[in-house]
Design brief:
The protein has 354 residues and is α+β, with helices and mostly antiparallel strands. The protein has 15 helices and seven strands. Helices cover 45% and strands 12% of the residues. A four-stranded antiparallel sheet has the order 1-2-3-4. It is rod-shaped.
Length: 354
């Protein structure tokens, strides 16, 4: 009968041609020590546990080297492992999975996620997701092990955006826009304060050129409410440049849906050399610039189609005003300001009084 204690293990050796053998403990089933000669002919002794998983798979795991780990410590360690096996856990499998997870970088996990996401969402949604996960938001995490990323890491990489373009930057972006779908979309985003997918998916049936209005149906709005905007002369001029395609309701894009070539924005952003800006910053720029022109906050909210503040909670139940006239005036004032910024017109834009 073999009991693997300090004295017994010290005396263990290999006989004859045997160069690798596992000696098993008769008191603790599954506990053993592997004795072998390494490539340099040195005798090595390594504590191990061997067990069968619930699925019937044989596992053997090294738990420490003798004499660095003594017999008493090895027996305690092995007992803990085997107790977990008795409870239906596969400790070696868990360690193996953890090892693989520790070598999985955030960037690789994003790549695997996007491969699956591509098959399940629209092209425009996929492009936005791809830009978000591979862009500068999570840049500090790209080379970090996935299992070592904490909630605070994500929070610090995903702070609320505060970027507002200056007048010089607005001019640079506007003048860099080419006579194509992306160029027209960027200009309309700045003039209307709409979201990228709202303008990217714009339909001719949503535009009344005679009345000078744009009406987004509930299913195209984040809050599920119809949203109507009066279009400035500058916005109408841009819309009239878009070409109607036979049998196609969408203004932008080439295929069954609207505009999907959002990857082009990355090239535009990098080419301009303006630090840390995205197309979504145009919406924030529009809202902030309108406020600086003296446009009241609730009118800015109405233009952005936000259901909050004056339209949120109990106030929204009783306040059914559309503010159509005020929104029209505000958008025209903002368009004049944009025109003066990008074209250097001498016309002075007078801010509204509070």
């Amino acid at each position: 009968m073999t009991t693997l204690d300090q004295k017994t293990v010290t005396a263990l050796t290999l006989q004859g041609d045997d160069r690798d053998h596992i000696f098993r403990d008769d008191d603790l089933h599954g506990f053993g020590i592997r004795v072998r000669f390494d490539q340099k002919g040195r005798l090595c002794k390594t504590w191990c546990v061997q067990y069968r998983t619930a699925e019937g798979k044989q596992r053997r795991q090294n738990i420490g080297k003798f004499p660095r780990m003594n017999a008493a410590t090895a027996r305690t360690e092995a007992g803990a492992w085997l107790n977990r096996v008795h409870d239906g856990v596969d400790p070696a499998g868990e360690r193996e999975a953890k090892g693989k997870a520790e070598t999985l970088k955030f960037s690789k996990a994003v790549e695997q996620y996007l491969e699956l996401k591509r098959l399940k969402v629209r092209d425009s949604t996929f492009k936005n997701t791809e830009l978000y996960l591979t862009g500068r938001y999570f840049q500090p995490l790209h080379n970090k092990s996935l299992v070592k990323i904490t909630q605070s890491d994500v929070a610090s990489s995903n702070k609320p955006r505060e970027r507002v373009l200056s007048e010089d930057e607005i001019r640079t972006v506007w003048n860099a826009c080419e006579d194509d779908d992306l160029g027209r979309i960027i200009k309309l985003l700045l003039l209307t304060g709409c979201r990228a997918d709202e303008i990217g998916g714009l339909r001719w049936s949503e535009i009344d050129l005679d009345q000078g209005t744009l009406t987004l149906p509930p299913e195209r709005c984040k809050n599920g409410r119809t949203h109507t905007l009066s279009l400035s002369a500058l916005a109408l001029q841009i819309l009239k440049q878009a070409k109607k395609r036979d049998g196609r309701d969408f203004l932008f894009g080439k295929w069954a849906g609207g505009f999907t070539s959002w990857a082009k924005q990355k090239g535009l952003i990098e080419r301009l050399g303006i630090a840390h800006w995205t197309i979504h910053d145009l919406r924030r720029t529009t809202a902030t610039s309108m406020a600086e022109l003296g446009i009241e906050p609730h009118i800015v909210e109405a233009i952005l189609n936000h259901v909050s503040g004056h339209k949120g909670g109990i106030a929204g139940i009783y306040n059914r005003a559309s503010y159509a006239k005020q929104m029209k005036t505000a958008l025209a004032l903002w368009a004049d300001k944009v025109d003066s910024i990008v074209n250097g017109n001498a016309r002075k834009v007078v801010p509204l009084r509070a």
